[in-house]
Inverse folding.
């Protein structure tokens, strides 16, 4: 199968619970060998969508195609579902040894013990749990259990791997290590993967494409770069970390740019807009530069005096809220905090380039 051909396709799929729509997917394609992340808040519909993929939940209308063939909504579906492996947030392991857990899917498929052994050993080595093979699965830590769960999923060589928040309950070091091993496993096996998460950093790290969901709808689906730098609407922009979202009136065009008035200040934006038009635009925090002295040594078109109104520690960086007559939010490192002696109430200069501003248009054509 070509990587340009969909392995799974949804057409006008709708699911309701009572009178409430919980999933509305006009069109969606997942391509062979890709890693697609579903991101969105709790209740966005990520798990419901993955259940729809496997026909574990009845759809009210619409069609699902797998490898170009329509999947029936009713009737025996166990053969179809064997194309999938699903890993949940909590490891669902049987009350037996790690080895037997990993072997369980192969045994169900009728493989002999002689055929099963090399497959299980390969997966135990892949996820670093060979030393746990005789351990009772109920005695495993969260990270060990999830490694066994992933090894069991890969053992059956699924055509599609579905991951539903598999790292949400793990501590950061365990999560980092497991993501590295999972990424390597997916790369080596070219397994088509759908990964549901509310953590955008995990999605960016693992995915070829990202689908942002809310209230049962896919608001935007595209590469991580496009999602991050050109979000389709204010919800997507906010969810993927565009901390500053402003609305202003177009004052007038310049050469390749236009000026927008916001709270009595003029902001130059790359692009085109008509005079008098109301525009909404976003600026990512990493694109805003803070200085305490300004000597004209910047290529940024937008430079504003401001006062730090709030500083929020975020672990490896600080979130700086700046009042420039309009609000800006920037990220700075601990080194910059110290070297600039930043503190709440301090006067600073905030600058950002016209090219770093993204205009949030109302219209968006889904791919």
């Amino acid at each position: 199968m070509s990587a340009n051909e969909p392995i799974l396709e949804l057409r006008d799929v709708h699911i309701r619970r009572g009178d409430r729509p919980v999933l509305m997917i006009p069109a969606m394609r997942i391509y062979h060998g890709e890693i697609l992340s579903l991101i969105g808040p709790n209740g966005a519909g990520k798990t419901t969508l993955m259940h729809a993929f496997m026909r574990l939940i009845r759809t009210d209308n619409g069609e699902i195609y797998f490898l170009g063939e329509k999947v029936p909504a009713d009737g025996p579906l166990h053969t179809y579902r064997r194309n999938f492996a699903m890993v949940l947030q909590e490891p669902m392991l049987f009350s037996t040894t790690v080895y037997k857990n990993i072997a369980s899917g192969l045994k169900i498929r009728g493989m002999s013990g002689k055929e099963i052994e090399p497959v299980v050993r390969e997966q135990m080595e892949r996820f670093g749990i060979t030393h746990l093979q005789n351990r009772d699965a109920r005695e495993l830590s969260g990270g060990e259990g999830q490694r066994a769960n992933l090894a069991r999923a890969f053992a059956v060589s699924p055509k599609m791997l579905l991951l539903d928040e598999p790292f949400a309950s793990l501590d950061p070091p365990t999560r980092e290590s497991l993501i590295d091993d999972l990424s390597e496993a997916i790369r080596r096996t070219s397994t088509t993967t759908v990964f549901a998460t509310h953590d955008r950093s995990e999605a960016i790290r693992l995915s070829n494409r990202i689908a942002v969901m809310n209230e049962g709808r896919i608001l935007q689906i595209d590469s991580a770069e496009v999602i991050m730098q050109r979000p389709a609407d204010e919800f997507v922009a906010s969810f993927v970390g565009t901390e500053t979202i402003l609305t202003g009136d177009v004052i007038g065009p310049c050469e390749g740019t236009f000026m927008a008035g916001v709270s009595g200040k003029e902001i130059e934006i790359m692009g085109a807009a008509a005079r008098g038009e109301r525009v909404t635009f976003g600026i990512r925090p990493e694109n805003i530069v803070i200085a305490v002295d300004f000597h004209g040594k910047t290529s940024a078109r937008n430079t504003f005096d401001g006062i730090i109104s709030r500083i929020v520690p975020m672990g490896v960086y600080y979130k700086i809220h700046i009042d420039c007559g309009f609000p800006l939010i920037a990220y700075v490192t601990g080194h910059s905090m110290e070297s600039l002696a930043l503190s709440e109430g301090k006067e600073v200069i905030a600058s950002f380039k016209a090219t770093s501003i993204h205009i949030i248009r109302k219209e968006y054509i889904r791919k």
In short: The first helix runs from residue 46 to 53. DSSP finds ten helices and 20 strands in the chain.
